C-alpha cells in the first residue's frame, strides 16, 4: 500500500458524503491539525480538509506523537464549525471515532472496537485515532483523523510494535485499502454531521463496538464500563453501584500496571 494516493481517497470520500468541502493535499507539513487550524482562523469553511502524505510533527491526544511516515497511512484534518453550546463539543471525538469504527466493521474486519474516547482498535491494537481540538473563541473545531493503512517495510519505533496495527493486515484479500479508508473518513465526518445540531451520542452507535465492559481506571477514577453517555462522557459503575461520568483522561485496564 505504499502507493496509496490521498487524492483518490479524498475524491472517493467526497462522493460518499456531502459534508466534505475544499481539499488541500500537501506533501509534507508539520501537522495537518496546525495547517487546518491556520486555514480555519482565516475563515475556511466547514468541511475544509487538509491532507498530508507525511507529517514531521504529527500529534495525537494528550500531546503524544503520531508516527507519520510517508506511504503508510492517511493523515488528515477537517475544519468543523458546530455552533451551539460549546459544552457539547467534546462529543465530537466519540461521534467521529464511532463513525470511523463502524465503517471498518462494515468492511468485514473482525474485532473492531472503539476505545473511549477516540481510538479505533483491531484485535486490541490501534489502527486509527481521532483528535478533536476545540477553538471556541474562533468558533471552530479541528478534527484530525489518522489511519494506519500499511506499514509494509516501515521500521516502527520499538515502543509502537506491541500497540499498533495496520488496515492491510486485517482486510480481506479482495478488499480495497483506499476504498476502505475513504469510507472510514466519510463515516467519521458524516457521524458528526448527522448529529447536528445537538451533538448527541446515540447508544446504538457505540454499544456493539465499545472496547471493554470490564473494570478500568480513568484519571484516577475506577469503575466498570457501563457505556457512553449522550454527551460523549464515559459511564463507570463504582463499587457502590453508583454511576459516574468521566469526561477526560485515558482508559486503562484496572488490572494493568
What's the quick description here?
The protein has 257 residues and is α+β, with helices and mostly antiparallel strands. 25% of the residues lie in helices and 28% in strands. The chain has six helices and twelve strands.
Describe this structure as you would to a colleague.
The protein has 257 residues and is of the alpha+beta class. The chain has two domains: 6-206, BirA Bifunctional Protein, domain 2; 215-253, no CATH class. It has helices at residues 6-16, 32-41, 91-106, 167-170, 177-195, 203-206; strands at residues 23-29, 49-55, 73-80, 112-115, 119-122, 125-135, 140-148, 215-218, 221-228, 234-237, 243-246, 251-253. The strands form two sheets. It has a seven-stranded mixed beta sheet with strand order 1-2-3-7-6-5-4. The protein has a five-stranded antiparallel beta sheet with strand order 11-10-9-8-12, with no helix packed on it. Helix 3 packs antiparallel against helix 5. The mean pLDDT is 88.
Amino acid at each position: 500500500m505504499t502507493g496509496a494516493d490521498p487524492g483518490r481517497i479524498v475524491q472517493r470520500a467526497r462522493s460518499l458524503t456531502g459534508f466534505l468541502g475544499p481539499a488541500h493535499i500537501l506533501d509534507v507539513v508539520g501537522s495537518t491539525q496546525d495547517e487546518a487550524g491556520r486555514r480555519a482562523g482565516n475563515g475556511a469553511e466547514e468541511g475544509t480538509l487538509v491532507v498530508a502524505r507525511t507529517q514531521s510533527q504529527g500529534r495525537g491526544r494528550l500531546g503524544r506523537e503520531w508516527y507519520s511516515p510517508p506511504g503508510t497511512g492517511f493523515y488528515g484534518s477537517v475544519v468543523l464549525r458546530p455552533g451551539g453550546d460549546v459544552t457539547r463539543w467534546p462529543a465530537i471525538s466519540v461521534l467521529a471515532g464511532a463513525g470511523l469504527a463502524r465503517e471498518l466493521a462494515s468492511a468485514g474486519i473482525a474485532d473492531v472496537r472503539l476505545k473511549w474516547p477516540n481510538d479505533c482498535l483491531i484485535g486490541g491494537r490501534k489502527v486509527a485515532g481521532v483528535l478533536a481540538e476545540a477553538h471556541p473563541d474562533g468558533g471552530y473545531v479541528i478534527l484530525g483523523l489518522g489511519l494506519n493503512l500499511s506499514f509494509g517495510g516501515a521500521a516502527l519505533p520499538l515502543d509502537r510494535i506491541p500497540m499498533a496495527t495496520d488496515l492491510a493486515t486485517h482486510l480481506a484479500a479482495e478488499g480495497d485499502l483506499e476504498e476502505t479508508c475513504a469510507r472510514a473518513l466519510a463515516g467519521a465526518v458524516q457521524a458528526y454531521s448527522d448529529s447536528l445540531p445537538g451533538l448527541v451520542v446515540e447508544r446504538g452507535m457505540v454499544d456493539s463496538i465499545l472496547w471493554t465492559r470490564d473494570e478500568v481506571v480513568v484519571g484516577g477514577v475506577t469503575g466498570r464500563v457501563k457505556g457512553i453517555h449522550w454527551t460523549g462522557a464515559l459511564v463507570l459503575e463504582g463499587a457502590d453501584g453508583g454511576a459516574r461520568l468521566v469526561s477526560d483522561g485515558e482508559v486503562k485496564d484496572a488490572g494493568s500496571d
